[in-house]
Amino acid sequence: xxxxxxxxxxxxxxxxxxxxxxxxxxxxxxxxxxxxxxxxxxxxxxxxxxxxxxxxxxxxxxxxxxxxxxxxxxxxxxxxxxxxxxxxxxxxxxxxxxxxxxxxxxxxxxxxxxxxxxxxxxxxx
Length: 125
Fold this sequence. Notes:
Layout lengths: L1 H123 L1
């Protein structure tokens, strides 16, 4: 009987050892799984952060572009206004010149008529 007990003991020790090893393996596996999940979470967090940054940059770029467009539109508008003003000014000057020419022409005609009348008077005397 004593031999049987002694024989059983090493087997039980072996079983206990195996159980312990299995438990440790499971613990290790669990730990690894948790670490991987943590890593995944961190990566996801990082990805989201990068995405946000990218969106921010895009928004900035978009705003910059819109600002540029607005500026260009404003400039075009101002140039157009200036051109119109210059055109108006030019037309006014041309009109003034025409009026002056007409006045000169009228004065010339009046003067010629006066001289003609004078000449006619002198001839009749």
